Amino acid sequence: MRFFVPTDIYVEKDCVKNHAQNLLSVGMRALIMTGHKSAAANGSLNDVTEVLDAGKAMYRVFNEVEENPSTDTLRKAVQAAREFKADFIIGIGGGSAIDAAKAVALLLLNPQLDADDLHQAPSRRLGHAPVVAVPTTCGTGSETTPVAIITNHKIGLKKSIPHVIFPALALVDGKYLASASKQLIVNTAVDALSHMVESVLNVKSNAFNRMFPEYGLKLWGECKDALLTNGDVDASLYEKLMLTSTIAGMSIAHTSTSLPHGMSYDLTLHEGVPHGPAVGFFLAAYTEVCAKFVPDDVEKVFSLLGVKDIGEFTAMLQSLIGTYSVTRKMRDKFAAAMKVNRSKLDLVPGKITAEDIDFIYEKSLAIRP
Ligand code: NAP
Ligand code: FE
Questions:
Q1: Across-strand partners of 134?
Q2: Fewest beta carbons less than 10 Å away: which of 133, 137, 173, 194?
Q3: Are residues 149 and 40 located together in one domain of the fold?
Q4: Using CA atoms, how far apart are residues 160 and 224, in angstroms rounded to an integer?
Q5: pLDDT > 90? residue 87
Q6: Which one of 176, 232, 275 would you pick to mutate in the ligand 1 pocket, going by the greatest count of ligand atoms within 8 A of its CB?
């Protein structure tokens, strides 16, 4: 058994301000990477630049990270980092900005690598510049994972890159959720839920890494009524939602994600479905299949969440994210690709068959003409 999360993690209100010295000690010249608008709108960018200004650290803002960041954007960002002579990267935003920051931190120290090469396995472990992560969604937990999910449109691939890039510092403050729509909170909370379920129902699940999802699923269960009820989520839950997402990140930092995540990438790449629902559509059927292999673990997940059985779990997910349909041709193509995706299939805690995979697709995606 092994436990390893080397990120210095703080979760609290006014976290960036409170830990100004931790932030300033990471480097002196930061490339700050954000999405187009949200970091400027929700105060997170301002909190970070105030600390850098007060500490006389230099920075440049790159605010062009799109949802599901592409290798083309990374190439532009690393050029900006080099021109500015950045010595560290700060990612502020959802998983897209933080994942992009991780990948740019790697590219910055490895000029021999082009962004389009990032998905190829390296012959040796590569170094990276330090990364600071300030999350503003309650879903990916990227601030505590070693993973970056990058899209290469030239080869039609959305996948994690095979490099280990833990942020040096994670500053997690629930107040940034105040600007998020209810649907964004729900979508990203479903991602966090999936991380924990996929971490428990996983061949790598063990006593060490179970501490995270077993506590996080309980916290998620305490938020579920607020997510399911019409109307805005009360501000008093923001910190709990963020903490849950960070804990869920620590879960998958040890186990990786499994089939629902592997299945989601095609749906996002080819249909533009946001990450949380794209994963969530597959979660109930995956859980149902795992009940054949690890019934006690499935029961444990349900009891921590406070749901009765697979029927109630499926209904809860449908009420949060709805349902989705694709053409039969597309569904068959996605299923065929998943049947040979060993990196995800090998994480299932039992001998999954081609019929099981067809079952998950059939249950999870309706057919549209
Ligand atoms: P996202 O793609 O980072 O952001 C989605 C949208 O939310 C963007 O339009 C963004 O706007 C907006 N937004 C972000 N924070 C906001 C806030 N506080 N208020 C209002 N709007 C806000 O969404 P995400 O679900 O967090 O990240 C998804 C990506 O992370 C996917 O690529 C997924 O594959 C990846 N992921 C990574 C890991 C990992 O371990 N590394 C795990 C799971 C998923 P702006 O563009 O204006 O910022
Ligand atoms: Fe995810």
A1: 92
A2: 173
A3: yes
A4: 29
A5: yes
A6: 275
Measuring CA to CA, which residue among 13, 10, 16, 15 is closest to residue 32? 16
Question: To the nearest whole percent, how much of the chain has pLDDT over 70?
Answer: 100
Place of tokens 């600071």: 132
Nearest CA to ligand 1 atom 4: 94
**Which of 284, 322, 276 shows the shortest CA–CA distance to 305?**
284
Q: Select from 122, 153, 175 the last residue of a domain.
A: 175
Q: What is the pLDDT of residues 347-360, one digit of tens each?
A: 999 999 999 999 99
The answer on 209 and 296 residing in a single domain is yes
Whole-number average pLDDT of the chain: 97
Say yes or no: 200 and 102 in one domain: no
Ligand 2 centroid vs 171 CA: distance in angstroms?
19
Question: Do both 112 and 236 map to the same domain?
Answer: no
Q: How confident is the model at residue 2 (pLDDT cuts 50, 70, 90)?
A: confident
Phi, psi angles (nearest 5°) of residue 212: -75, -60
Same-domain status, 154 and 29: yes
* Residue 198 near ligand 1, beta carbon < 6 Å: no
Task: With 0.90 as the threshold, say if the pTM is over it.
Answer: yes
pLDDT tier at 331, thresholds 50, 70, 90: very high
Residue 2 falls inside a structural domain = no
